[in-house]
Amino acid sequence: MINNISVSNILNAIVPISRFNKGEASKIFDEVSAGGFKIVVKNNKPTCVLITPEKYEEMMETIENYYLFIEAEKRMKSASESDFISHKQLIKDFNISEEELEDVQVEIE
Q: What is the predicted pLDDT for the residue at 54?
């Protein structure tokens, strides 16, 4: 959707604010659903970008994941070997057996 942005896509995505004043909001929202985004202009200047709720959620999740990645990178750079414990030590500390872990379902993205 937004990944395939070209000059022609951007030109087609421009919506004058006057279209809203003419009662075309519903049509514009349908165009956003079909095309992914619209750029609303007022006095020939961009004032708003309209995107679908799904694309907004995807973008917010991407930003959140980026912040988590940056935090993980910071922690890894400042970590020393003494900050880590082995798998065997973890199992011992929590009194878990290897057999208990065999049936655990793990979600992998």
A: 92
Distance CA 55, CA 86 (A): 40
Residue 88 sits at the vertex; the CA angle it makes with 82 and 94, to the nearest 5 degrees, is 95
Q: What is the pTM of this model?
A: 0.61
Q: Quote the tokens at residue 13.
A: 């995505």
Q: Per-residue pLDDT tens for 27-61? A: 999 999 998 899 999 999 999 999 999 999 999 99
Do 17 and 40 touch, CB atoms closer than 8 A?
Answer: yes
How far, rounded to the nearest angstrom, does the alpha carbon of residue 97 sit from its chain's CA centroid?
Answer: 38
Contact (Cβ atoms closer than 8 angstroms) between residue 32 and residue 19: no
How far is CA 18 from each of CA 30, 32, 84, 93, rounded to the nearest angstrom? Answer: 17, 17, 60, 66
One-letter amino acid identity for 7?
Answer: V
Distance CA(95)–CA(6), nearest Å, equals 57
Q: Nearest to residue 34, comparing CAs of 56, 51, 46?
A: 51
